[in-house]
Design brief:
The chain is mostly helical. The protein folds into three domains: about 200 residues, no CATH class; about 180 residues, no CATH class; about 35 residues, no CATH class. About 75% of the residues lie in helices and about 5% in strands. The strands form two sheets. A two-stranded antiparallel ribbon has the order 1-2. Strands 3-4 form a two-stranded antiparallel ribbon. The chain starts with a helix and ends with a helix. The model has no long low-confidence stretch (mean pLDDT about 75). This is DUF445 domain-containing protein.
């Protein structure tokens, strides 16, 4: 049958106009339901709906929805650390690259500015009578001694913390805790890293839907049964989501295909520029996989500014699972200032052995708080981030394609089947609505 005869057969079909609506409707519906599926992947950040105890579906706390990525932030971030970040280097290496000697100087200068008020705060909290009645000359000697001791104490303390960073900080737990406490950060990370792929899935779905719609139109021509409209709409919805996600990550490894090139694409009108025919190579690889060099810049920036930061590392040291060990290590350095003859004699005689021992614990508590203030300084964190940005970027670029895909793949893999099935369900509903609104009048 030639094209003219085929067109005549279609044109003479009693439901000709209804059939012609199948391709554009399928394209539009596919475009909409893929957009919906992508939005449901990331939003809402918090659960929206009615909470029901022991709700058995999708791991949700009730009847409603929470984005797959924010809902499973802890699990997904753990996968990213295990399969990607852990391959980029050790926390000790990153901390060393932050130049701890410079950090010690910055912290010393910041603490030294408020050292006297810090000493006053510690002593007035612990023993206001003693400190209030102590002659200013003796206080001045305590201040002076503390100022003299601080630089060497901070230098040795930071050096010791650097040496023990792997023992005091669990990088996996640090990042997972950060992601779980700030689920929007996880969503923003995936959107920044994979925005082009998300847009690609959304837009290519309309083209795939149009192709499937044309196929369905011919199916209806051969099998003129109305049940085929919602049935095949469900199949196309299912397949579109699967194909679109597959195209982002597959093939994992690049495959180069030779072809004859007759024109080049350009950004301005007429967009297509003729060329002399020549042999060119097409890189057949998943869309995300092709962008490894570009993504490396984006992901490295996210890691050094939001995840492996000086503030996060020190927070985990001071308040995390190994806080007790950190306190013991700090004691060995900070107590040195109390061992100087001036301070030891002044305080021990005034307080007695027992209260002098309790004072040591107060000093540790206050010192941790005082030390964390400069460590949260944006300027310090930004300067340390710049020290390790290049390290992360270059190592992400050096990942194998299989390792690299794990920067984005876990977000889709976690509930990929949910998204695909959702495409089938929305396709069926849209096909049924299409049947009722367009085909039903023709049936009457």
């Amino acid at each position: 049958m030639d094209v003219t005869s085929l067109w005549q057969t279609i044109a003479e079909h009693p439901e000709f106009f209804a059939m012609l609506t199948i391709p554009p409707v399928t394209a539009f519906v596919t475009w909409i339901h893929v957009l919906m599926a992508l939005k449901m992947l990331f939003y809402p950040i918090k659960f929206r709906g009615i909470r029901i105890a022991n709700f058995p579906f999708f791991g949700l706390p009730g009847l409603g929805w929470q984005g797959i990525v924010p809902r499973k932030a802890g699990k997904i971030s753990g996968v990213i650390v295990d399969q990607t970040l852990s391959k980029l280097g050790s926390l000790d290496e990153f901390f060393q690259a932050m130049e701890p000697d410079q950090m010690a100087i910055f912290i010393t200068e910041a603490v030294d500015k408020n050292l006297e008020s810090l000493i006053d705060e510690i002593m007035l909290d612990h023993s206001p009578a003693l400190w209030g009645n102590l002659p200013y000359a003796l206080k001045r000697r305590v201040y002076t001694q503390a100022h003299q001791e601080l630089p060497s104490i901070m230098q040795s303390l930071v050096t010791d913390l650097t040496y023990h960073v792997e023992d005091l900080v669990d990088m996996r737990k640090m990042i997972v805790n950060k992601m779980e406490s700030d689920r929007r950060l996880m969503v923003n990370m995936f959107l920044k890293v994979g925005q082009k792929e998300i847009n690609f899935i959304w837009h290519i779905s309309a083209l795939i839907g149009l192709i499937f719609g044309i196929i369905q139109m011919f199916i209806f021509l051969v099998v003129p049964q109305h049940w085929t409209v919602p049935f095949f709409a469900a199949i196309w919805g299912f397949l579109t989501n699967w194909i679109a996600i597959w195209m982002v990550f597959n093939p994992v490894e690049p495959h180069f295909i030779r072809y004859v090139k007759f024109f080049a694409l350009q950004s301005r009108f007429p967009f297509i520029k003729p060329q002399l025919p020549h042999i060119a190579r097409y890189r057949f690889q998943g869309g995300f996989m092709k962008r490894q060099e570009e993504v490396s810049e984006v992901f490295a920036e996210i890691v050094v500014k939001d995840l492996v930061t000086l503030e996060n590392i020190m927070n985990e040291m001071m308040y995390g699972d190994h806080a007790i060990e950190t306190r013991e290590l700090m004691k060995s350095h900070l107590y040195k200032v109390l061992e100087s003859p001036v301070i030891n004699t002044t305080l021990r005689l005034g307080l007695g052995r027992r209260e002098f021992g309790q004072l040591k614990n107060t000093i540790i508590d206050k010192s941790i708080v005082a030390t964390m203030v400069p460590l949260r300084d944006p300027e310090l964190n930004e300067s340390r981030a710049s020290k390790i940005f290049g390290l992360f970027r270059d190592r992400i670029r050096a990942l194998s394609p299989d390792e690299f895909q794990n920067l984005l793949r876990p977000a889709f893999r976690e509930d990929e089947m949910t998204l695909i099935v959702l495409g089938g369900l929305t396709g069926f509903l849209a096909g049924w609505l299409h049947l009722v609104l367009v085909f039903s009048p023709a049936m009457q």
